Amino acid sequence: HEPQVVPATDQRRVLEPEDLARASEHITQVQAEVDELRQAMFEARRGHHELRSEHLGAIKQAHEEQRQAILAKRAQFADAWEQLRQERKGPDDEPPEAPKKGKRR
Predict the structure, then answer these.
(1) What Cα–Cα distance (Å) separates residue 80 from each residue in 68, 71, 84, 88, 97?
(2) Over the stretch 7-17, which tens digit does the pLDDT of each residue have?
(3) pTM over 0.90
(4) What are phi and psi of 96, to 5 degrees?
């Protein structure tokens, strides 16, 4: 593949001062748009992070409330179980009487 030789007549024209001024203005405008987009992305990320933190906090709080409720039910069950055990023991820690064998009606 041969390199292309560009004839002298096809050379680009020399940039005039007004061309440079227009290009500079365009670059400034594009940089301002890029800065706006960067700021918008920053704010979107911050908003996302804040929402995520709120959701995680709510999940953690709900989990802790559920854990506390389970622990309370567990303690309540243990108390009821112990109470039933004490009632079944009878006086003087004797084992409960076996049911009397008799005819059922």
Answers:
(1) 18, 14, 6, 12, 21
(2) 555 556 677 88
(3) no
(4) -65, 150
